Amino acid sequence: MSAEKETQDDGQPSVEGTPSSMSGGARLRQEISPYLRSQAADPVQWYPWGEEALGRARDEDKPIFLSVGYSTCRWCHVMARETFRDTTMARFLNQNFINIKVDREERPDIDEVYMAATQIYSHGGGWPNTVFLTPDGRPYFCGTFFPLDDGPENEPGFRTAAESMAHAWQHRRGEVLEQAEELATVMRRFLSDRNSAGELPGPDMVDAALGALRERFDDTWGGFGDGAKFPMPASLLLLLELADEEPEADRMLRCSLEGMARGGIHDVLGGGFHRYATDRAWRRPHFEKLLADNGWLLQIYARQARRGDPAAGRVCRRLADFLCRDMAAPQGAFFTAIDGETDGLEGATYLWTLGQLVAELGEENAAFLAPFLGYDGTSERGQGYVLRWQRDLDEQAARRRLPVEELRSEVEPLIEQLAVARRRRPQPMIDDKILCDANGIVIAGLAMAADVLDDPMLLQRAAQAATWLLEHLRGDDGTLRHVQAAEGARFGAFLNDYAGLLWGLLALAEQDDTGPWLRQATSLADEMVERLEDQDLGGLWNAEASRQRPFRSKEIFDGTYPSSNGLALLALLELERLGGPSHRATVERALRLYATAAQQQVEGLRLLAVVVHRWHRSEP
After folding, report:
1. Could you give the C-alpha distances from 444 to 17, 242, 512, 521, in angstroms and in order?
2. Burial of 153: CB neighbours in 10 Å, binned 0-12, 13-18, 19+
3. CA of 20: how far to CAs of 15, 23, 45, 99, 142, in Å?
4. How far apart are alpha carbons 489 and 471 in whole angstroms?
5. pLDDT given for residue 487 in this prediction
6. What percent of the chain has pLDDT over 70?
7. What beta strand segments (E) does 472-565 contain?
8. Which pairs from 596-601 meet CB under 8 Å and 24+ separation?
9. What confidence category does residue 22 fall into, taking pLDDT thresholds of 50, 70 and 90?
10. Which among 405, 419, 427, 326 is positioned nearest to 373, based on CA atoms?
């Protein structure tokens, strides 16, 4: 009987090398994560991260193949289709490795550790993260996306890499273990052994962080760098912090927010923001939409609107509507993400041809609207055009010598007509797990938007989500949990969960001082500090100690999201400002611990610079 046609009791394909115990498909179908469940049909025998997989690797003396991704990751989808569903490749993996699949959103503790390994090993990073480990969890080879077979210029494909790693373990184990220990030593130093305590960072650290942003700022399109661009909330938060006192910060902030709002990264019809842009002009997005991205951007546009920017207020309005319409879970909280693919095609739901515009609007209306959307008839990615604002309506009205409200009354019904038409198309998958940290960020955004938009319904929506999280994301011992789905709450809360939810509760407390929010925030802050503060050196661990984690970390550097330590420390200062108890000793110990890093790598510590700025501004 051929391996491809043989099936096991769970109805999934079986290949040679499959363990006789529960199949990978059966394991993954039991998981909360939609990403893990989507891999259940793979012929690769996947394990979720846990003692079963780690114990099996130790008992069988097999290396581990670890693949880390998430449900809306474009290249994770591609690698799954091309590589992990290839039966020959699966047979080899099943025979030679214990294969572990991790959802980075569900297990940020595992993701952070092994992304650090990939960055150290290859000086790059991204998802899917592809890592080969010794049975005790030390990496000895790291990479990101691999095609199945070698490239035209001898770039190694995944087949070559996996065969090489298996051969090295079987025939050059001494070299493998030596390399694994060298990399593990660097990882331990990078992740946790930051520095000994030093002097508190002074205001010059804030100046240096702003200077580092200025050096990378794109004066033409906003944002930072000259290639693919993420919104980078930590950078925008630093600019917001300084915008009222530093004209250069105000200029960079306005240019960046306007560039994103007018770019293809901003969904004209839906109101939300896609994950990132593949070009410096923000025009061509990767189409996935993540809850945390949109929660942070809602906060940032709301705060900018509070500074008197009406265009930011309009973005804030549409972004809040998007979250409450398209990402709301029936329980009261918010789902994690919306995929960028529809039926295997990236962006298929979002792209338009000129013929489709005419079919929906008629020739006259399509000809009227197209210039506002920058539409010139060209096709992007061979599928269609990414709609985007060419200019702000204020500018368009001035050019046409019309009152802006009159022009808006003509444009907005056509935009809504296209939005309704788009909702009739096949829609991308929604990742329906509920993450504590991302929900906390959205709660804060909705509370801030409620204030600037004078919309009590948004405040009520934020309060509803917070109440649900506090009631349902608790373990048997009463402590906070990280993720919830139909099967229940799982995983003890990570620092990001405490910091994110605390930030949301504090935003609610600022807008509603009659509610329980300050009391709830106080309790949560006490729990966070008790469980995660390093009592010996200072700073906050990302997770409690566990034998399933070979490394333990303190995240201080900002990436595409603000660092967990930066947000936690900022929230503790905000708690004190709003009349809650002081945790200044915890904040001071952490700032002293990270002082050397602040001198040497300030460009990666933008949110910590905000903490330092507020620390000196609020000194007793």
Report:
1. 49, 20, 12, 13
2. exposed
3. 11, 7, 11, 15, 29
4. 11
5. 67
6. 93
7. 481-485, 488-492
8. 596/194, 596/195, 596/196, 596/198, 597/194, 597/195, 597/556, 598/201, 598/205, 599/201, 599/205, 601/557
9. low
10. 419
> Is the separation of the CB atoms in 555 and 565 below 8 Å?
yes
Residues with Cβ < 8 Å from 110, sequence gap 6 or more? 49, 68, 102, 104, 549
What is the radius of gyration, based on Cα positions, of the chain? 25
Report, in this order, helix, strand and coil percent for the chain, each rounded to 5.
50, 10, 35
Comparing 11-25, 239-253, 472-486, the range with the smallest average pLDDT is: 11-25
10 Å Cβ neighbour count for 426? 9
- Is 477 exposed, middle or buried, given 0-12, 13-18 or 19+ CB atoms closer than 10 A? exposed
Q: Do residues 273 and 445 lie in contact, with contact meaning Cβ atoms separated by under 8 Å? A: no
Has domain 203-349+429-617 been given CATH number 1.50.10.10?
Answer: yes
571 compared with 554, residue with greater pLDDT: 571
Taking the C-alpha atoms of residue 602 and residue 609, their distance in angstroms, rounded to an integer, is 8
Q: What is the spatial distance between Cα 54 and Cα 68, in angstroms, rounded to a whole number? A: 16
User: Domain 24-191 falls in which CATH fold?
Assistant: Glutaredoxin (3.40.30)
H or E, element range at 289: strand 289-290
pLDDT of residue 383: 72
List the one residue out of 322, 339, 232, 340 whose CA is nearest residue 268. Answer: 322
Distance CA 486, CA 49 (A): 20
- Positive/negative CA dihedral, 421, 427, 433, 438: negative
Strand-pairing partners, residue 409, are none
Residues in the chain: 620
Greatest pairwise CA separation for the chain in angstroms: 78
Query: How far is the C-alpha of 298 from the C-alpha of 442, rounded, in Å?
Result: 8
- The terminus-to-terminus CA distance of the chain in angstroms comes to 78
SS3 285: strand
Provide the β-strand partners of residue 131. Answer: 66, 142
Taking the C-alpha atoms of residue 544 and residue 527, their distance in angstroms, rounded to an integer, is: 12
What is the value of pTM for the model shown? 0.90
Task: Return d(Cα 462, Cα 474) in angstroms, integer.
Answer: 19
Task: List phi, psi (to 5°) of 194.
Answer: -65, -75
SS3 label, residue 601 = coil
Q: In the predicted model, is pLDDT for residue 4 greater than 80?
A: no
Token pair recorded at residue 231: 């919104």
CA pair distance 586, 615, nearest whole angstrom:
12
Between CA 99 and CA 95 the distance in angstroms is 10
485 forms beta bridges with 488
Parallel, antiparallel or unpaired: strands 276-277 and 129-133:
unpaired
Is the pLDDT assigned to residue 281 strictly greater than 50? yes
Would you list the domain boundaries of the chain?
24-191, 203-349+429-617
SS3 202: coil
